[in-house]
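Dear colleagues,

As part of the handover before I leave the project, I'm documenting each prediction I ran so the next person doesn't have to rerun anything. This entry is a single chain, and its sequence is reproduced below.
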Amino acid sequence: MKFTWKTEINLPLDKVVALYTNMDNYKEWQTEFKSYELISGKPNEVGTVTKLVYKSITKIETITSQHLPAEISAEYEHIYGKKTMMIHVGTNRFTALGENKTLFEMDMELTKFFGFLPKLMAKFMGGAVRKYYQKWVDQFKAFAEKV
């Protein structure tokens, strides 16, 4: 399953990228985000591993590609309790549309599911996934434009 979300943000490219790549800002726009822990590497560099803790899930993020300010990609391992339930790949793109306008695009591909229930849920939850991450994109835009 692949999904894409887009929004235009009324800020310069460098400001949008700086706000997005600063994990201290995640709590401002990511639903249920609690904390993060750098496991290895340096923030936003290829190979860096970070533990992202949400109210009901933990994700292990591994940066797989970085071409900032244009793009950054990562693989996310979703852990519920002590079990890996799925893996998704995310790519975030930033394009200057003018001096004070940036196009923010978030692509996601759900790549692996572990167990019958996650596979079943994936088939029926596409609409919910789309709405959930659209909310994040909208909340990031609102956060960025008010800072």
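The chain has a mean pLDDT of 93. The radius of gyration is 15 Å.

All the best with the project,
I.
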